[in-house]
Amino acid sequence: MHATHLAWVNDKSNSSKKSAYARARGAAQRILRQMKNEWWAKEAQELKQAADLRDMKAFYHGLRAVYGP
Q1: How far apart are CA 23 and CA 39, in angstroms?
Q2: Could you say which DSSP state residue 1 is in?
Q3: Mind listing the pLDDT tens digit for each residue in 35-61?
Q4: Separation between Cα atoms, residue 22 and residue 19, nearest integer Å
Q5: What is the pLDDT of residue 8?
Q6: Which stretch of 11-15, 19-23, 47-51 has the lowest confidence by average pLDDT?
Q7: DSSP string, 2-69
């Protein structure tokens, strides 16, 4: 993504470089969204498992990871 951005910045009049940068940025955002969704699913599963086992220490530790201190 960085290389396509530099190529576009150095030649702003080239529409193919702009579209290449837009595709790279979109792909990076898709991957980031997927990683974020996987993290949320994993955290939710861990919180559910801790709640089902009545493990309050693990449950509140997981809540602090999600919401902060």
Answers
A1: 24
A2: -
A3: 999 999 999 999 999 999 999 999 999
A4: 5
A5: 87
A6: 11-15
A7: HHHHHHHHHTTT-HHHHHHHHHHHHHHHHHHHHHHHHHHHHHHHHHHHHHHTT-HHHHHHHHHHHH--
- Each as own residue / partner, the long-range contacts of residues 50-54 (CB below 8 Å, 24 or more positions apart, any chain) are none
Angstrom distance (rounded) from CA 56 to CA 51:
7
Query: Nearest 5°: phi and psi at 55?
Result: -95, 90
Q: What is the pTM of this model?
A: 0.72
Q: How many CB atoms lie within 10 A of CB 35?
A: 10
